Amino acid sequence: MNNSLIIGQYVPGDSIVHRLDPRTKITIIFFFVFIVFFANNLPSYSILVVFALASMFTSKVPIRFVLKGLTPVWFLIIFTFLLHLFVTKEGTLVFDFWIFKFYSGGIFQGIAISIRFFLLILVTSLLTLTTTPIEITDAIEDMLNPLKKVKFPVHELALMMSISLRFIPTLMQETDKISRAQASRGVDFRTGPIKDRVKAVIPLLVPLFVSAFKRAEELAMAMEARGYQGGEGRSKLRELKIEKMDIFVYLIFIVVIILLFLTRTYG
Amino acid sequence: MDITFENVDYTYQKNTPFEHKALEDLSFHIKSGSFVAIVGHTGSGKSTLISHLNGLSIPTDGKVKVGDYLLTNDRKPSDMKELRSKVGVVFQYPEHQLFEETIEKDIAFGPENFGVPESEIKDRILKAMSAVGLSESLLDRSPFDLSGGQMRRVAIAGVLAIKPDTLVLDEPTAGLDPRGQKEIMDMFYRLHHEQNLTTVLVTHSMEDALKYANHVIILNKGKKYLEGTPEEVFVQKDALKQVQLDVPEVVQFITSFNKKFKTTTPFSNQSINQLAKQIKQVLIGDELE
């Protein structure tokens, strides 16, 4: 009965970031991920941080949601920071106590790597926070279109993605229903030795698979009955359209790239 | 087993934006050995109600007492398993819960979980199968080879093999053909009397409620709307209409008969034969005048 499960982590809203064409968002994030690795000094990092934070604030997504996306990687960030702190022996010695010898290069690199991580996760989670899974699927289908020339089944891939997303809540409900039925027949999913609990999953999984296959068959039949025959000549309900705002955002991003390459140090 | 609800509230996802009150201030009493029909429109809280009967849900507020087991928000019985072995639940589309390789194993699943000795299980399987009208020759077949109606019988046998004192049925005939519906309901009715069960039937069908139940509870939006014997409840046409429920056909018939012939034949849950006699009396009486 848990209908509140939010798929992905989409936070509904009506900000500029929400309304951008999903292709724009994906393209920018794709290139952003690359250029993050070109930043190598304070000004260049500042430019990226400003860009990322500015996007976050325009999206009006509550900061706690963004931070939630960071939780699984906090450990990684701290670990790499410490690794750099202890291992890198460049620059001048700034801290020396017992076995702890920290060099300025180590500190700078530690911070730089942490910022990189932070930026990468911030912008990518901003994509899923402001774009519905269906929009992302549509955008991916559209962007992979050129691959059709080499017979890559782009439309089918996109269809598979959207069907899987569509059926996640349905299967969750089904799971809930079946686990209640089996609990009524005396299965205990929560207590007992691990071995018993693993065994208790079988009465749950088998009916779930049976119903998933049945649903798949019914869906296929319903699609065929309604004349579905693949992507060829099929019109779209949601047309993707590049608006003025998208072009404006692209221009800003190009400026960011130019500034970055002007400020980074070479050699 | 006696079942008592005292001011039961049940709220899904309390303290979230998705909060939803499924049951509100619900109180009623079901006497041991009675056949109760719970009727209500979709979303009236019927399914939530029955999940309280074997502790799948615990009331957010108020008390549920099933036999000697008391369920309140701060106190779950430690022997929930025992409660579940005494209250058998046949869910909607119970055939969806089948999973074993053979019918025999699937029916044995419940009793095994509740620790029934091996020697007794075999006996229970055979009895449950004959109760639902399945032939013994099916024992080694896969439940997935059967027709939908037969699968349902296997699933029901799986619940009966637990030998519950109280049987809870959530629309047990949904999706069956008319004959299958009648067979299944008649079977539950027979078992109810033979094994002295307390039966709780959740249904959309006013006809079934009228035919089988001796006590009816009508739910609307999580609250108790009407309660009483079928004779009391099903004559309240206007009140039922308010919650999008119809009166059973017999009642409709008697009402229009009375209107047309200006008589006052009462509705007393009489059988068709009795009703025919009453009608004959009215009509022949007219002829004699």
Strand order of the largest sheet of chain B: 6-7-8-3-9-10
Evaluate the radius of gyration of chain A: 25 Å
Tell me the span between the first and last alpha carbons of chain A.
Answer: 60 Å
The proportion of strand residues of chain A reads under 5%
Oligomer: heterodimer
Spatial gap, N to C terminus of chain B: 54 Å
Task: Specify the CATH homologous superfamily of the domain at 1-78 and 203-246 in chain B.
Answer: P-loop containing nucleotide triphosphate hydrolases
Uncertain runs of chain A are 1-7
Read across the widest sheet of chain A, the strand sequence of neighbours is: 1-2
User: Structural class, from secondary structure content of chain A?
Assistant: mainly alpha
Helical segment tally of chain A?
11
Q: What share of the residues of chain A lie within helices?
A: 55-70%
Describe this entry's structure for a reader.
The complex is a heterodimer of chains A (267) and B (289). With 267 residues, chain A is mostly helical. Chain A is built from eleven helices and two strands; from the N terminus they run H-H-H-H-H-E-E-H-H-H-H-H-H. Chain A folds into two domains: 16-131 and 241-263, no CATH class; 145-225, no CATH class. Mean pLDDT of chain A is 85; it is low at 1-7. Among the domains of chain B are: 1-78 and 203-246, P-loop containing nucleotide triphosphate hydrolases (Rossmann fold, 3-Layer(aba) Sandwich); 248-289, no CATH class. Chain B contains eleven helices and ten strands. In chain B, helix 3 (103-113) packs across helix 4 (118-132). The mean pLDDT of chain B is 86. Chain A binds chain B through residues 1-4, 174, 177-178, 180-188, 202-203, 206-207, 210-211, and chain B through 12-13, 16, 18, 51, 54, 56, 81, 84-85, 87-89, 91, 94, 96-99, 109-110, 112-114, 144, 158-159, 162.
